[in-house]
Task: structure prediction
Amino acid sequence: MVTLKSQREIDLMRRAGEIAAEVLQIGGAEVRPGVTTKHINDVMHKFIKSKNAKASFLGYGGFPAVACISVNDEVIHGIPSGRLLTDGDIVSIDVGVLLNGYHSDNAATFPCGTVSPEAQKLIDVTRQSFYEGLKFVRPGYRLGDVGYAISSYAHQHGFSVVRDYIGHGVGTQLHEDPDVPNYGVRGKGLRLQKGMVIAIEPMINAGGFQVQQIHPNGWTVVTKDGSLSAHYENTVAVTDDEPLILTSQS
Result:
């Protein structure tokens, strides 16, 4: 069941979103050759605690870290570790914050040192595909319109859209209804209404769209063909007019 949020609830989520956006940028600033993904996670955790907030992911379903940090062919759910980043890696960071009973969720992919032109293009297209979908986050449009805009943009640039993992509603729970696919058919799907709050999160692959969970940790998902993958996400509220990004990233 989709829960419509009041203005008071959206304001509370925006406060959580401001912290989530800031911690994501702090984590991204730590991405450089020779740094471990655990170091990035620890820096982010320290910041969240300094804001008297909680990390949404820590302990969620048994997840052992504050952030999902996924490198190169890792699509999502990378577990921070002693892995050293190297020049040319691309690093996706996904982090959520819980404050005053409400969650916000966001993600972005960061270049490590000097990356290839293809890798940079993938990062840029993934980010822009979110904004293509955002154009349709208004009352009267449907989720199929959002997903179609995202996938069409990615396909135009020669990339594929992950289908096995999608966006979601956000509120007092980290994952709520509705499901928010990054693909769809125009004019189909749930109709958007004022008060809906959704996490739109394109996961775009340089190769095929197929993914697999082969890591022994039981969490990390990788591209089936070993190609690079990028991720971009914001938590967005549907208003009477322009969509409101609650995790507005600088």
Notes: The CA atoms of residues 59 and 189 lie 32 Å apart. Helices lie at 7-29, 37-50, 117-134, 143-156.
